[in-house]
Amino acid sequence: xxxxxxxxxxxxxxxxxxxxxxxxxxxxVATCNRADYSKLAPIMFGxxxxxxxxxxxxxxxxxxxxxxxxxxYRMIEQDDFDIHTRLHTIVRGEDEAAMVESVGLALVKLPDxxxxxxxxIMIVHGDRFDALALATxxxxxxxxxxxxxxxxxxxxxxxxxxxxxxKLSHYHVCCTRSAEQHLIAMCxxxxxxxxxxxxxxxxxxxxxxxxxxxxxxxWLGEDVKTRDYxxxxxxxxxxxxxxxxxxxxxxxxxxxxxxxxxxxxxxxxDAGSKEMVRxxxxxxxxxxxxxxxxxxxxxxxxxxxxxxxGCMIGNSSCGVREVGAFxxxxxxxxxxxxxRETGENVLxxxxxxxxxxxxxxxxxxxxxxxxxxxxxxxxxxxxxILKFLxxxxxxxxxxxxxxxxxxxxxxxxxIDHILETQSALAVDLGGTNLRVAIVSMKGEIxxxxxxxxxxxxxxxxxxxxKMCVExxxxxxxxxxxxxxxxxxxxxxxxxxxxxxxxSTKLIQEWSSVDxxxxxxxxxxxxxxxxxxxxxAALAERKFGxxxxxxxxxTLITGTGIGGGIIHQxxxxxxxxxxxxxxxxxxxxxxxPECLCGSQGCIEAYASGIAxxxxxxxxxxxxxxxxxxxxxxxxxxxxxxxxxQAAKLGNIKADSILRTAGTALGLGVVNILHIxxxxxxxxxxVLASHYVNAVxxxxxxxxxxxxxxxDVVVSNLADPALLGAASLVLDYTTRRIY
Length: 737
Description:
Rossmann fold; alpha/beta; cytoplasm; transferase
């Protein structure tokens, strides 16, 4: 409070000159429970410290006024705030119906209060059902709403309530960059969003130097040492009450077995809390020598307790948000906080269905010390919020405006159009074959056409057009509506212009070729073109193992070696469209010559061409065939013969394959050290032969921080065609281009 008084004195003259008047802003802060007060109190202190700018009215409702939850309104009085109104709004029962009735009771009582106060702005926090009643009342009574902590993502019904409050609110204060982006994606006006950080961090980041041993002893006993106790705080999950009660029971069993002094806080007022309290009493937690069960701990003291704990366990947002400021280990149980941004101090036990899982998590986390995290704030949220409040112009229209993205007009609303399957024409331009397919939105290849790839540019383009026209005509018969054409080709591609800059040696006369224009002109459809490796990555992102994965790499192991990199859900092309030429990572300075002209590339070791080359050498020396193998005189030696020989015990063939797998593995290690993906997908005909070798090299050669990466074999039957289709399906169905 002293800090804010000093701040106001320094800035008073500057702000008054900027505003040009002395009109005070009347602000109503409504607090419903102990958790939201910890976020609102710093803002309230800041408002109170600047009486020349603000008038503060405090309304208290919800579980603050219930004895079973600690009568926490008293801490508001202890902080020297005048409570204007106390509203008893909680209908007891602690089930789903009681929550609905509590919202209704609040809606009945709030209009009279707001009519008397006539605030300019109502400050509402978070995602509780009480807060929804506050926001609904204020919005219907034409009172501007400032919502704290909107845009965040978590589990249970809280997500829906939080986003509903966002839509009712006129101004938004968010804590993280991701939350800000979520608000923008929800069509909120960017000019009315403030990225301030969490207000509680203003207190957290200056709290650790205070005397704390007396607080620890008061709540946990005289014989307790720092880092040698646990804080447990677990709430019911309103969308799955039975499971959350069972999980709480398992948590208590694990804590009893772990045998450490534990401070257990009572759950909040949500549906299911009464059953959780019964579980505590059934297990004798309130009388157990290792446990201290309490209804409420003042926030200042709670900060000290979690800052010096050996671990915090439960499903409270406090664990994944505030506790990171101290680096205290946290075990987050279940789905209640799914989607929250967390620091490395948080260990998630999503499916906490056994006591052993929870006990193992305690053994892993207890007593550790992690780096302090500032994901949710830097300690300067309140000054930013006060400045934001002062900038609000009450003369602006009250009606909210939403920033909707542009949406293309629907060209048809007839029943046939609605019933058609949205599809893409996918073209795979390979070294041997030219393939065209109709691919549905779900990744089903409805129909496929294959022809030998002509040798000359003119013949090749003519055949592409002929096959695309044929497929587009057939699409009508199979009730598919073609949205566009996607083309996958080898070589370097400018996807923005739809031009093949230069291709591989497998496709002759294919440099500086504009594929988009002639095909688009002929079919009257949009056309996308990209490199085959990038297309494989896009296929995995939409239909395969990469679906929902933020960062992953796909490696194609076929005639050549290629790939694609997905970073933050987007494909990386590079400044000259040469990113992800993974086959040309050099793994040996004096290795075999590659088709690119260099030496020691992965492709020179592990591609189908490289294996065929080595197979021919063995065959020429009569060292390839072993018992169980036979070849016709006119049969061409291929990589398949080398693989077959290795399986039948040919030591030299096996050595060649192991060398190829090692080369590929070293390339993957380099990729891990550069882009640090969470997943590596091996695609193509050789993937299953290399996957174990790649995992072995990662285990031996990679840094420990990346050894946990998942390496899997693609389960897509035709990644080239599916990737070409995803070029179309991803872009033509987006609302923002």
